[in-house]
């Protein structure tokens, strides 16, 4: 059984500030260790239930946040920037399950360090009219390939946002946000214990065909509210993107992978007009 793991960083227990996870500040090595521990706990739990092959896609910032040599399960490691499928690079129909580790809430949520892909670009994202975060947007790729998202970890608000796409979702709450810059963090040992148990149960359920594929109705529409008007205008330079408001653009497709790829293109293009 093959398991695909997309790792973010903001949802890891103990992370409450940008300088812990961006750049090379004094807290960065400890933060990276916390992320590695949670990732390995998920792999170990899945392996105990019979999973045999693992791919870890580093999906945070410059996407070089893990020590590849210390990943459990002899996991392959997808790292580096400008990946065509970004946070879901490497996923295809050969995988049996998806884990989203260290995820966070959407832009505007009172979730620790909340944003949606790019805090410099996206004010809000809506999928078929529902406000979504990164877990919901990434579900487009998972559903396209027919692979269920079986485990999500992060603060309590992140789990709430992810659940509508998979009611049978397993989850681990790593901390309780009290705002965007503060949280009550569970002890790392407790989080890792819960992660092993949740990953084990998630894989057992998957093997028993108890986990449904993500459900996003098609044709699906993704609408982005940008920070400034220029970004919405720039987004329309991409074929299939239409202006729906002063700071809003939308695009629709029956092919969920094509919809996601268009989103990635819109994001990269909109970043070109970010104020210095």
Helix-strand topology string: EHEEEEEHEHEEHEHEEH
Query: Which residues sit in consecutive blocks of at least 5 with pLDDT less than 50?
Result: none
Total number of β-strand segments? 12
Q: How far is it from the N-terminal to the C-terminal residue, by CA?
A: 46 Å
Proportion in helices: 25-40%
Descriptive tags:
alpha/beta; Rossmann fold; seven-stranded mixed sheet; 12 strands
Task: Give the topology, please.
Elements: E1 2-7, H1 28-48, E2 53-58, E3 76-78, E4 97-103, E5 122-127, E6 130-131, H2 134-145, E7 149-155, H3 156-162, E8 170-177, E9 183-185, H4 188-207, E10 220-226, H5 229-235, E11 242-245, E12 248-253, H6 256-271
Parallel strand pairs: 1-2, 1-4, 2-3, 4-7, 7-8
Antiparallel strand pairs: 5-6, 5-10, 8-9, 10-12, 11-12
Explain how this protein is built:
- With 276 residues, the protein is of the alpha/beta class.
- It has a domain at 2-114 and 133-207: 3-Layer(aba) Sandwich (Rossmann fold).
- The protein is 30% helix and 24% strand.
- The chain is built from six helices and twelve strands.
- Strands 3-2-1-4-7-8-9 form a seven-stranded mixed β-sheet, sandwiched between helices. A five-stranded antiparallel β-sheet has the order 6-5-10-12-11.
- Strand 8 and strand 9 (183-185) form a beta hairpin.
- The longest helix has 21 residues, at 28-48.
- The radius of gyration is 18 Å and the shape is globular.
């Amino acid at each position: 059984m093959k398991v695909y793991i997309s790792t973010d960083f903001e949802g890891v227990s103990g992370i409450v500030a940008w300088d812990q996870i961006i750049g090379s500040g004094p807290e960065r090595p400890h933060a990276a260790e916390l992320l590695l521990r949670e990732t390995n706990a998920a792999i170990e739990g899945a392996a105990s239930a019979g999973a045999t092959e693992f791919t870890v896609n580093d999906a945070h910032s410059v996407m070089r946040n893990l020590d590849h040599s210390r990943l459990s399960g002899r996991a392959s490691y997808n790292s580096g920037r400008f990946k065509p499928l970004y946070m879901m690079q490497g996923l295809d129909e050969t995988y049996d399950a998806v884990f989203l580790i260290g995820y966070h809430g959407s832009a505007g949520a009172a979730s620790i360090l909340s944003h949606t892909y790019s805090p410099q670009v996206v004010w809000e994202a809506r999928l078929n009219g529902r406000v979504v975060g990164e877990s919901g947007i990434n579900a487009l790729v998972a559903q396209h390939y027919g692979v269920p998202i079986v485990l999500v970890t992060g603060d309590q608000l992140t789990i709430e946002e992810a659940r509508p796409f998979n009611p049978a979702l397993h989850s681990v709450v790593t901390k309780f946000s009290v705002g965007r810059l503060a949280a009550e963090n569970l002890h790392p040992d407790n989080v890792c214990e819960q992660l092993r148990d949740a990953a084990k149960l998630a894989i057992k359920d998957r093997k028993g065909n108890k986990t449904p594929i993500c459900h996003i109705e098609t044709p699906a529409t993704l609408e982005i509210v940008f920070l400034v008007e220029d970004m919405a205008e720039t987004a329309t330079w991409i074929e299939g993107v239409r202006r729906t408001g002063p700071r809003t653009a939308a695009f629709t497709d029956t092919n969920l992978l094509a919809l996601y790829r268009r989103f990635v293109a819109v994001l990269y293009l909109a970043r070109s007009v970010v104020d210095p």
